[in-house]
Amino acid sequence: MAEELPETPETADEEPVKQRKNGLYPGVSDELAENMKSGWADTELRDLEPIPQAAETAARRAALSARFPGERLVIPAGNLKTRSNDTEYPFRASVEYAYLTGNQTEDGVLVMEPTADGHKETVYLLPRSNRENGEFWLDGQGELWVGRRHSLTEAEKRYGIPASDVRELAGALREATGPVRVVRGYDAGIEAALTDKVTAERDEELRVFLSEMRLVKDDFEIGELQKAVDSTVRGFEDVVKVLDKAEATSERYIEGTFFLRARVEGNDVGYGSICAAGPHACTLHWVRNDGPVRSGDLLLLDAGVETHTYYTADVTRTLPVNGRYTELQKKIYDAVYDAQEAGIAAVKPGAKYRDFHDAAQHVLAERLVEWGLVEGPVERVLELGLQRRWTLHGTGHMLGMDVHDCAAARTETYVDGTLEPGMVLTVEPGLYFQADDLTVPEEYRGIGVRIEDDILVTEDGNRNLSSALPRRSDEVEAWMAGLKG
């Protein structure tokens, strides 16, 4: 990784560029600084088209404007976060900002200023790097180091929103008058500029509204979620084809294999992939992925590709590493499959959100009683929640630009709400028998099974977006055998 050149006072614009303590160059000569100002081609892009979701983002901003008339609304993208010393984590814009603009660049801020008939919208962005003062090659975030940015004119064409220099925004916000709301937690500088103008309660109302807006997906979002799922299916196929290499190494081979598909076809993985072999399958969020992969064990793979527009899939399959379930593995797997079938059948418009969870839990409780692992009757087990020792988690969640989407929505509109066409949620029951659980027979211990699919609520029921991945145990075995060839 190359080192940045140090800056000299003569090349500074407003603030000196931070100098690396142990850089190899002590300074910049006047002659070099002058030389770097000129001789560069005009790279302005003049034939840009609006982003594909421009109409949808405009409609979302209109709905936001209608909800908060007469108030200034400030929605930041966020800033780069340091990973170590002078390296940063890959940037991902805040969901609220990306949902309303389609833009994904760091430091961006959407500001909606109240007018007599709605709001005036401006997206504040970093402009092209300044070549006159040397910023583009001396600053660690200059375009020579991190790549070209869109000019403000280009940004206006792409996002359909007037664009201005974000470096001027904090000062303008300090002088702002009238009611203001800001989405907190992403940009400390913007929040500091508004510290005497906002309240936590009013800002939370803004965050909640933006979260609830995403409960029902539009056609663009559903299309992106299907893209994410389709890439995820191919990622699962990739993994099955290299299970022999994973056996020779570790769970990390599985993680790396799926990540390659995510980066080639999408933006990234939507969350840390869970590549849990053997007893690790009983750890719900096993993301260390450093354990062995053994023939005869199960592999619980919970992973999702994130598209370039931030929509993520979230799919789980529990696969026999050697391609064949043992009798006990199949018994447990089939119980989870039956529970998922009951849960999916309960997903339909007008149903309560909780219905699919209750349906799946009922099946699992029945099997646990049937196997003699918990004393019935089933209704007693469910009333006391005794099945939760082995089922552990809820049966699903909303899905979208966050893997656990709409998390800030009010309980009455989410968990206690009613399903509507356009909602997308996961259905993912599981059974987990911990390796140290002395309440179950020894042969059960260390077996964990989860099956998860992404379900769209339709006008007449539901559609399984991830149906291309086999779920039934015999179909899984046949699918794996076909891929291994």
Automatic annotation (TrEMBL):
Gene3D superfamilies recorded: Creatinase/methionine aminopeptidase superfamily, Creatinase/prolidase N-terminal domain
Record's catalysed reaction(s): Release of any N-terminal amino acid, including proline, that is linked to proline, even from a dipeptide or tripeptide
Biased composition (Acidic residues): 1-14
InterPro entries, sorted: Aminopep_P_N, Creatin/AminoP/Spt16_N, Creatinase/aminopeptidase-like, Pept_M24, Peptidase_M24B_aminopep-P_CS, X-Pro_dipept-like
Domain (Aminopeptidase P N-terminal) ranges: 52-191
GO molecular function list: aminopeptidase activity
Listed EC numbers: 3.4.11.9
UniProt-listed CDD domains: Prolidase
Keywords: Aminopeptidase, Hydrolase, Manganese, Metal-binding, Protease
Region (Disordered): 1-29
Cofactor(s) annotated in UniProt: Mn(2+)
Pfam families hit by this protein: AMP_N, Peptidase_M24
Family classification: Belongs to the peptidase M24B family.
Protein name: Xaa-Pro aminopeptidase
Biological source species: Streptomyces prasinosporus
Organism classification: Bacteria, Bacillati, Actinomycetota, Actinomycetes, Kitasatosporales
